[in-house]
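Objective 1.3, modelling of assemblies. Example input:
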Amino acid sequence: MPEKPSILTRRTVARSRLFHVEEMELLFANGARRCFERLVGSGHGAVLIVPMLDPDTVLMIREYAAGTQRYELALPKGLVEPGEDLLDAANREIMEEVGHGAHQLTHLTSFSIAPGYLSHTTHIILAQDLYPERRPGDEPEDIEVVPWRLSDLDSLVGREDCTEARSIAALYLVRDRLKR
Amino acid sequence: MPEKPSILTRRTVARSRLFHVEEMELLFANGARRCFERLVGSGHGAVLIVPMLDPDTVLMIREYAAGTQRYELALPKGLVEPGEDLLDAANREIMEEVGHGAHQLTHLTSFSIAPGYLSHTTHIILAQDLYPERRPGDEPEDIEVVPWRLSDLDSLVGREDCTEARSIAALYLVRDRLKR
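Predicted structure (tokens):
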């Protein structure tokens, strides 16, 4: 593993309600200097949950995505609140978004989404042994819950409204894991 | 599919060299109004390439990621230049990053990375029938090329330095596709 570059300077170059852009000047081990901009996340990260209704049925959600300006079919997810345990955050999110809690929650791995310019981390949580429980969320409209069979992942990934890389990676990961 | 919300207002709330943050006020079909912030991308998107040296060997790269401030093992990728064809962009990127071109390039699908707040699209390109050809890139230090066997994807995804969701999703997708 190469030696990490040193950070010579860092400063905030833009800020909005949600986003914080930092500029860093880096000195690489070979002497090269470069300026990079990155988005600094909230620090607590997010959870993305794979809620299994039974060993072959995952609960997806269809929700409006303001970034791409269209409805997206993806796994439930949300930000971890300050001081909140990852598994508690996962259970809260599935109660709010798919109307179920889980007796069994497992942290499988953690993904980055654009490590070149985002500090953001998403923790992938497998939720099993579900029970019905709905908690109110802060969504502007009702979320549609869409059950999908993991044995039919090919046709899901081929859909134009299922494009979110973290959800697709997590679905393959869980399908492989549950097959074993 | 629900009716898309109408965009009542949109304005730029922050801007830096790389990033453009837009605030939008949306009116949902049920009458709910919400303000969202999103990052608006360059408009041309990015390509992420799965370069197959042989039917079981993919060429990964190890590169410093300024967003997460560590070295990351991932697939080669880069921005599409204005007016550039997606497959040409993919071939250029693998010449710069892994020292190979490809006689066969296939656009498999396109991923979003955080559709809730990023407009960004990444086109996934399968590169086969490789030939050695290196072009100079703009990287601050030499990129390490790491061949990996698709039949050993489990141990790759279990590594702490292989976390990038688009790469992981693309590797599973190609493994499944080449198995058929």
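Chain A has two domains: 6-39, 46-179.
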